[in-house]
């Protein structure tokens, strides 16, 4: 049985270390990519404080398509270069956006979102999608979030066959 208790830590770095450990314990024990992405989205959504959405957009036919997530219903398709997710996919870098209303071309899937972090999912120089996390708070995300969410993608690259994800219809 996996541990579903909320992660409580004395600081943000310890929180992320515990979260990464928990996520690795889930994905290392399961081979189904969809099950893993669903559980990762749930773990992020349930454990990261002050967020209103956490999930994945996956590359399909040259655009980002909604994948597993936690939160309100979201935009289904995002063109490369559009919004924070599409810009992250185009530029292949993490974007930490303190105020989404000031981000040119921001796509408002949830009007309650005020800040956002989006991390590209890249393995062997292939873009497979993005990890997107939104918050109703301005300035919610910082360099610590960026560092550890990028480490999360590195960890997922060890366990997830992104080519199998691309086959999911």
TrEMBL record:
<feature type="domain" description="GAF">
    <location>
        <begin position="56"/>
        <end position="145"/>
    </location>
</feature>
<keyword id="KW-0560">Oxidoreductase</keyword>
<dbReference type="Pfam" id="PF01590">
    <property type="entry name" value="GAF"/>
</dbReference>
<dbReference type="InterPro" id="IPR029016">
    <property type="entry name" value="GAF-like_dom_sf"/>
</dbReference>
<dbReference type="GO" id="GO:0033745">
    <property type="term" value="F:L-methionine-(R)-S-oxide reductase activity"/>
</dbReference>
<protein>
    <submittedName>
        <fullName>Free methionine-R-sulfoxide reductase</fullName>
        <ecNumber>1.8.4.14</ecNumber>
    </submittedName>
</protein>
<dbReference type="InterPro" id="IPR051330">
    <property type="entry name" value="Phosphatase_reg/MetRdx"/>
</dbReference>
<dbReference type="GO" id="GO:0005829">
    <property type="term" value="C:cytosol"/>
</dbReference>
<dbReference type="InterPro" id="IPR003018">
    <property type="entry name" value="GAF"/>
</dbReference>
<comment type="similarity">
    <text>Belongs to the free Met sulfoxide reductase family.</text>
</comment>
């Amino acid at each position: 049985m996996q541990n579903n208790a909320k992660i409580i830590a004395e600081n943000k770095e310890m929180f992320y270390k515990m979260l990464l450990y928990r996520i690795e314990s889930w994905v290392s024990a399961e081979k189904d990519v969809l099950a893993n992405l669903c559980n990762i989205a749930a773990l992020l959504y349930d454990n990261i404080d002050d967020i209103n959405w956490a999930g994945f957009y996956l590359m399909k036919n040259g655009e980002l398509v909604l994948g597993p997530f936690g939160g309100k219903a979201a935009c289904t398709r995002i063109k490369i270069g559009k919004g924070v997710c599409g810009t992250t996919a185009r530029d292949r870098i993490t974007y930490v956006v303190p105020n989404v209303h000031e981000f040119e071309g921001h796509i408002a899937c949830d009007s309650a979102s005020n800040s956002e972090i989006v991390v590209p999912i890249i393995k062997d120089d292939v873009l497979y999608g993005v990890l997107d996390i939104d918050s109703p708070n301005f300035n919610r995300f910082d360099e610590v979030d960026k560092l550890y969410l990028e480490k999360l993608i590195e960890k997922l690259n060890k366990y997830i066959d992104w080519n199998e994800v691309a086959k999911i219809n």
